[in-house]
UniProtKB/TrEMBL annotation, chain A:
One of its GO terms (biological process) is fatty acid beta-oxidation using acyl-CoA dehydrogenase. This is Electron transfer flavoprotein subunit beta. Pfam families: ETF. Heterodimeric electron transfer flavoprotein that accepts electrons from several mitochondrial dehydrogenases, including acyl-CoA dehydrogenases, glutaryl-CoA and sarcosine dehydrogenase. It transfers the electrons to the main mitochondrial respiratory chain via ETF-ubiquinone oxidoreductase. Required for normal mitochondrial fatty acid oxidation and normal amino acid metabolism. ETFB binds an AMP molecule that probably has a purely structural role. GO terms for molecular function: electron transfer activity. InterPro entries: ET-Flavoprotein_bsu_CS, ETF_a/b_N, ETF_b, ETF_beta_N, Rossmann-like_a/b/a_fold. Residues 1-23 form the signal peptide. The keyword Transport applies.
UniProtKB/TrEMBL annotation, chain B:
This is Electron transfer flavoprotein-ubiquinone oxidoreductase. Gene3D superfamilies: 3.30.70.20, 3.30.9.90, FAD/NAD(P)-binding domain (3.50.50.60). It is found in: Mitochondrion inner membrane. It comes from Oncorhynchus kisutch. PANTHER family: ELECTRON TRANSFER FLAVOPROTEIN-UBIQUINONE OXIDOREDUCTASE, ELECTRON TRANSFER FLAVOPROTEIN-UBIQUINONE OXIDOREDUCTASE, MITOCHONDRIAL. It catalyses: a ubiquinone + reduced [electron-transfer flavoprotein] = a ubiquinol + oxidized [electron-transfer flavoprotein] + H(+). Accepts electrons from ETF and reduces ubiquinone. Its EC number is 1.5.5.1. GO terms for molecular function: 4 iron, 4 sulfur cluster binding; electron-transferring-flavoprotein dehydrogenase activity; metal ion binding. Its cofactor is FAD; [4Fe-4S] cluster.
Amino acid sequence: MSPASVFVCLSLTLLSDYPVIRVKPDNSGVVTDGVKHSMNPFCEIAVEEAVKLKEKKFIKEVVAVSCGPTQVTETIRTALAMGCDRGIHVEVSGKDYEAMGPLQIAKIFAALAKKEEASLVILGKQAIDDDCNQTGQMTAALLDWPQGTFASEVTIDGEKVKVVREIDGGLETIKISMPAVLTADLRLNTPRYATLPNIMKAKKKKIANMKPADLGVDMVSRVEVLRVDEPPTRLAGVKVETVDDLVAKLKANGTI
Amino acid sequence: QRSLAHYTWRRNCSSAVMPRITSHYTIFPRDKDPRWEGVEMERFADEADVVIVGGGPAGLSAAIRLKQLAKEQEKELRVCLVEKASQIGAHTLSGACLEPSALNELFPDWKERGAPLNTPVTEDLFSILTEKYRIPVPMLPGLPMNNHGNYIVRLGHFVHWLGEQAEELGVEIYPGYAAAEVLFHEDGSVKGIATNDVGIAKDGSPKDVFERGMELHAKVTLFGEGCHGHLAKQLYRQFNLRENCEPQTYAIGLKELWVIDEKKWRPGRVEHSVGWPLNRNTYGGSFLYHLNEGEPLVALGFVVGLDYTNPYLSPFREFQRWKHHPFVAKTLEGGDRIAYGARALNEGGYQCLPKVTFPGGMLIGCSPGFMNVPKIKGTHTAMKSGMLAAEAIFPKVTAEDPASKTAGLHIPEYEDNLKKSWIWKELYAVRNIRPSFHNYFGLYGGMVYTGVFYWILRGKEPWTLKHAGLDSAQLKPAKECTPIEYPKPDGKLSFDLLSSVALSGTNHEGDQPPHLTLKDDSIPVANNLAIYDGPEQRFCPAGVYEYVPLETGEGMRLQINAQNCVHCKTCDIKDPSQNINWVVPEGSGGPAYNGL
């Protein structure tokens, strides 16, 4: 019995690979105004995997979901342009958005997965701006579903999913029953480009709107950010001529 | 003591094979390339009424004006705009002091709509700098640089706002997709453009994710690529648009944003200088604007005319050392640099205006070049040119029978309207100021000319001075020039090139053919390095060009670090061999300017 629908859960992140990020003058966070936001790279990989599974006829429908302000619809449209069938935008803005963390997002995704009777929930392993690596795992726990995280290979085998996981020691292969939660790691696939004709066609695909309250989720955060600071500036190194000099310097600054 | 000639000879005699640099399909066509056999090259095509290349002030103003006319006259019009940056405003860089004349015409209610014009100019200072001192020059009303009534803006944010207004009016804007190719009808008129292909590897072969760009066809295509656009370069040749004008001359502008000590902050103050560190025969100068948007932010930068003759000159290092002048340093001390960028700008003015309409298309904005050089403003004229283009196009494109001889509409009314507009009057009045610098006294001769002829006669003198010719032809051989001793950056006021490039936020997909293409890979070492000591190492503000020793054998090779490129176009302009052809990389690549 092939699974009916797959949820791909997307995150909108600061494109923190290359734009210039600076800390707000009041140290409460990072300046986000005017900085280009786009789909989290691991979420792109997740979308690609879901679309591939649909192309191989293992699943019937791919739904792209994301939580956040209006900007997020652009990200969902990119996912639609890559091949997802429809989208769901859970509107979270203002103070709620600033305080939104993995737990709140996981509650929303879990509620939606139950409501829409999804068979698979695929996420990126972590967002590149906060590096939390928690949302997938929390979603699985809230749903009481098995999880295959850090997936570098996914194969559907009847009612089960074989997942090859990237772990520190190497690769671990597990078999889990569906419904399940998967998180995508870097080597899972190379995402396709969202081409312009597909972006234009994606405008006709549906994106449903809803609020966290519609799903019975409260957005109160249990985490309070106290302070954000820039990393300390690197100090200049010192060159020494001999080993004796090195030992003397290390003794002098208390290292040995 | 070995002579310079000996060293250059040694560097050029190479016993090793030069590694190939260029792999782009514009130099090595794919229909003759065996790796491309059997690859599907068919493109999806779509039709619009008007397609606009470039989401800058000109392109967006044209799009907005078209939609405003459509709304007024209750007609339907499909307007599509493509922009190579990942978001509107990300490739925009300018000083800038905006003269709101065109904006007032486009949106009389711009204030209610929230246009980010937050800093009216309150103070206007002009100085001639010497190494240690500053000679103030009175900013008399009537001098072109007088800024009364203007606003200091972060042009990237203004352009982003224009993009929002355009989308609200129904313009289809597609950032992240670059126009890579002009398409032609069989009768030779412009049919539209094709966006860039994606998924080509660095060696020019197709990757698994290869996808063809798409074709956007239109009744008329507007090209608003900004200064020295790459498609415009092709159109000039194709339609002979420059046969009656002088070759365009340019400058490079480098810019930084600084958060300064609040005690030094004077919101609304505009400062310009000429003189040190440039000598009197090198055109250029500085700007420093105090913004008023909450935090003590200043926008500052340095402009160097690209007709400079000394190949050892580095515009980037001139900029960095200018900041050490006591008058500038005192504003910046204790501050933090938060952004950096660079872009070429037009200097030619009236004498260099090409024909701007051709069958199927037109040129708008800084691409043909409406910048008022002594005023150092081009945004208002760019916007106005876009609006005039829209007003000329609208009746033709919505008419039942456009009565055109060619499939792509030829609309010469645009050029006629330009000539009747204030753009033309303005550019005509200041036409002699920039060329007046070409005299023995250089800067000082130019200032005297401006003071006498412009201030008194407002450009009514009957003669029109000529420019010096192509910028790329101005460099003297290195052996005739003296290397310039630049001070080392101190890491507080002045900085090295690579940490500056990092602040531009620039990046590109690494595995793609370098978009700085060379017509002939052997010329950089044989000509640029041999005769001019590799000036591209110095005029590129992003460290794209490096001459490095060959891995085996003796000699040097050119290394192109395409990922660093900030799309300034200076190399295409200043290369003495005119061997570099800048083409557009995969869309979304390039700088990530935020309000520059």
